[in-house]
Specification:
heterodimer, A: mainly alpha, 11 helices, B: alpha+beta, Cytochrome-c3 Hydrogenase, chain B, 2 domains
Chain lengths: ~300, ~500
């Protein structure tokens, strides 16, 4: 196996994430009749933040400083297992899907700890919301992954989202479609997108993810923003691979298809965000349970 | 025998001696009886007499008959509080206690509203307030105790570009058990500035009471001054004032609908209503020379005319705004996810609205019928009638709906006025104010009832200027609307009231 495609997809995974956010913002701007910020604005923001100094509250400990380092590190590690093309995950082993899911969990755990470390009532509130919703999103995610594992006969990400998936669509299409729908809802919830969380709001009392990182500043905040973008990228890659299981065999062509799929997904997220109001906070669990039920029905279809 | 309260019509000036002065118990009974019979406490304030004693006045509005009643009483240091039997008096009595260091005995929650030294030079009611400039908010708050109760403090510095105010929530999980609102951070002492004042500066000060209600407060100021001077303005000036007031209402109502869209994350509403608000402000600018309507109203009339090409242009643009408003509002009110957020959020019953004496769209959304333009009309509103819009659910949806409907009525009014502008002088000279008199005016600003009361001394100078912004009545309504609601719905609820901090803090 050649090294170049691996490095190429790793490079894409490192560079692309903020672009997705840029495309989402641009879509939202166009749909509401605005010019909007440049597509590359998230990169400029990261650059700006990296040059700033950070402010630390005297009430915080090392946990608060560890948060912005550990969470992007966890996402970067998770990125190594995600196959942008076939076969091109840098790391791969039997059962790595569980590790992948819990690397995301590690990032959440440290973010929540860092939030609680500030002692702010806002951050405590956000942490409470985050873990409540995560406890509902996680089963949905696992059931959706279980559907894919069942139809592909593998619990290894690069095989689950490999060429076998393409054939599986012919035999277990409805189940995979349900899993994809469930996965899309989990993606929106996990990445603090509408209708679960409003990434553009400045109102602390309504935030979920954003309120947990209110006290981070400068480079720390840049790491957090980059980490969130990477998380969105990881979920998006899996969803795109699930929906467009094309495998041509020419590496650059496959990469082009994946990138086109990612941009299309970003536009779709932008459209969802521009066309509906955010859910009431007490209805979010209902949405996540719905997501779990969709995936469970999919699992029932392939369970024999 | 106890004299009957003095009956007045908005706006009116009378001899100060004509206001009956009752002994405290009789005064108290008279106010409580009137409120029980459906009157509202529109103003309740004190005036320093001879530097020692405080004369307390009550202005009661009878909406059915379109009349107001005034009575007064002399108070030394303390009087039995009205609040336990008349919750409308709650904030008025706290204000009175703070301004004149007179104690409403038996007041259930006696705290300063704005935190400043009293005007009487007596010792303040709140110990520890001896510092040169007392800090608002440095006193105990209501606490709910329990191991699962958590407290969230928001403000006075907020994340958005809004005014300062402090909100203290007592929560159980996401549920709000109690919200206490503490304001006063914007206290500038406008009432006292207006009292000593130079006449040239006064109109500018009146325009600065609340930056988003320039026309409303300036109109109340002009009407009170004109009634003190016995000045009759021309029909044309009256019509132009009405046009400016309705444009201000339109701009703010439309802006609020957009802001409600923002708060639920519904971007199209935010963008379209935001643009339409800009158009309304532009119309106001072309009429007055300022996007917020500054330097347009002056005692005796108005400073700019509306004629010729501008008139034709206004009509064309307002017709377009009318069409756009309908389209945008349909989009907002036909989106299920938006309705899901609006309905049942921040409910207030009509009973609570009546007890607290809410005013403006917030009161009408609860089914309370009150609108100064309808009940106590002055100026152009005596001749042109706007239908009163009410709803009955008292939630965010009702408050949003009232804004839409009122914006539509305002546009209809504006178009009607444009086609039939009467003739007349723009501005007539306003004579010297009568000495030893009291005058009041009421204006239905976009937030609700604005009351200005002016008292002149023996030389015809202003001895006391009292302002009641609609926010003064309504902040308590917001606190009540949050009870048993969700803390994450607070920003939406807050926006549906959209109260003024500056107008309250004065």
């Amino acid at each position: 196996m050649s090294v170049i495609p691996l490095l190429l997809s790793l490079g894409l995974a490192l560079v692309c994430p903020p672009l997705l956010l840029g495309v989402i913002h641009k879509t939202k701007a166009i749909l509401t009749g605005r010019v909007g910020a440049p597509v590359l604005q998230p990169y400029y923001d990261l650059w700006k933040l990296l040059q700033k100094g950070a402010v630390y509250s005297r009430t915080t400990s090392w946990v608060f400083r560890a948060g912005p380092l550990v969470s992007p590190a966890a996402f970067l590690t998770a990125a190594l297992f995600v196959p942008l093309t076939t076969p091109s995950a840098l790391l791969s082993f039997w059962g790595d899907v569980v590790l992948w899911a819990y690397l995301i969990g590690v990032a959440r755990f440290i973010t929540v700890l860092a939030a609680l470390d500030t002692g702010s009532s806002f951050e405590g509130m956000g942490a409470s919301r985050e873990v409540t919703f995560a406890s509902l999103a996680e089963p949905a995610l696992f059931v959706a992954l279980a559907v894919i594992a069942k139809v592909t006969g593998s619990v290894q990400l690069s095989e689950m989202f490999g060429p076998v998936l393409g054939q599986a669509w012919r035999t277990a299409g409805p189940a995979l479609a349900l899993a994809a729908a469930s996965f899309f809802l989990v993606l929106l919830a996990e990445n603090a997108r509408m209708p679960v969380d409003d990434p553009t709001t400045h109102l602390e009392l309504t935030m979920i993810h954003e309120v947990m990182v209110l006290d981070h500043s400068g480079p720390d905040f840049a790491f957090i923003l980059y980490g969130s973008a990477l998380k969105l990228f990881l979920f998006s890659v899996l969803l795109v691979r699930l929906l467009v299981p094309v495998h041509i065999g020419v590496v650059w062509l496959d990469l082009v298809i994946v990138v086109a799929g990612l941009l299309g997904l970003a536009v779709l997220i932008g459209i969802v965000e521009s066309s509906m109001a955010r859910l009431r906070l007490i209805r979010v669990p209902q949405l996540l349970v719905t997501s779990g039920v969709l995936a469970a029905v999919g699992l029932l279809l392939v369970w024999r | 025998m106890i004299p009957a309260p003095l009956s007045l019509k908005n706006p009116q000036a009378v001899d100060e001696a004509a206001v009956p002065v009752l002994p405290i118990p009789a005064f108290r009974d008279a106010v409580l009886l009137a409120v029980k019979e459906g009157a509202r406490l529109s103003a309740f304030f004190g005036r320093l007499i001879n530097g020692k004693q405080v004369k307390v006045y009550a202005l009661l509005a009878h909406d059915e008959t379109g009349e107001c009643a005034a009575i007064g009483t002399m108070v030394q240091d303390s009087y039995p509080s009205l609040t336990p039997e008349c919750p409308q008096a709650h904030w008025f009595e706290r204000e009175l206690a703070e301004q004149f260091a007179i104690k409403p005995a038996g007041h259930p929650w006696l705290k300063p509203l704005r935190h400043h030294r009293n005007y009487r030079g007596a010792s303040d009611l709140w110990p520890g307030q001896d510092a040169a400039s007392p800090i608002p908010g440095s006193y105990p708050f209501f606490h709910v105790k329990g191991s699962e109760i958590h407290e969230v403090a928001v403000g006075p510095v907020h994340a958005g570009i809004i005014e300062p105010g402090h909100f203290r929530f007592q929560c159980h999980g996401e549920r709000v058990l109690h919200l206490e609102i503490q304001l006063g951070y914007q206290h500038r002492g406008i009432e006292r500035m207006l009292a000593g004042g130079l006449s040239q500066r006064m109109s500018v000060l009146a325009e600065s009471i609340a930056g988003d209600t320039v026309i409303g407060h300036a109109l109340a100021f002009c009407e009170v001054m004109e009634s003190l001077g016995g000045c009759q303005i021309s029909p044309r000036a009256q019509a132009l004032r009405g046009i400016a007031l309705e444009l201000e209402r339109l701009a703010n109502h439309v802006g609020d609908l957009g802001a409600l869209g923002t708060d639920v994350g519904f971007l199209p509403a935010a963008a379209y209503f935001g643009r339409l608000r800009g158009e309304c402000l532009n119309l106001l600018m072309e009429l007055t020379g300022s996007r917020y309507g500054r330097s347009f109203l002056r005692a005796g009339g108005v400073l700019h005319d509306l004629s010729g090409v501008l008139l034709v242009d206004f009509e064309k643009r307002m017709k377009r705004a009318q069409k756009e408003l309908r389209t945008f509002a349909r989009m907002l009110f036909d989106t299920p996810s938006v309705i899901d957020r609006f309905e049942g959020t921040g409910m207030l019953t009509e009973q609570v609205s009546e007890e607290l004496g809410l005013v403006g769209p917030a009161a009408r959304a609860c089914g309370s019928h009150r609108d100064i333009r309808h009940d106590h009309p002055s100026g152009i509103y005596q001749f042109a009638h706007l239908p009163m819009m009410t709803a009955d659910t008292g939630d965010v949806h009702a408050r949003a709906l009232i804004r839409w409907l009122e914006a539509e009525r305002s546009l209809e009014f504006l178009l009607e006025q444009l086609t039939s502008l009467p003739e007349g002088e723009l501005r007539v000279p306003c004579p010297q104010m009568k000495a030893d008199s009291v005058a009041f005016s009421m204006v239905e600003g976009w937030r609700g009832e604005i009351v200005h009361v002016v008292m002149t001394d023996a030389k015809g100078g202003i001895a006391r200027y009292k302002i009641v912004d609609p926010s003064f009545h309504n902040w308590m309504g917001l606190a009540m609307a949050l009870r048993n609601g969700e803390i994450s719905d607070f920003p939406l609820c807050n926006k549906s009231f959209n109260l003024s901090y500056a107008g309250h803090d004065l």
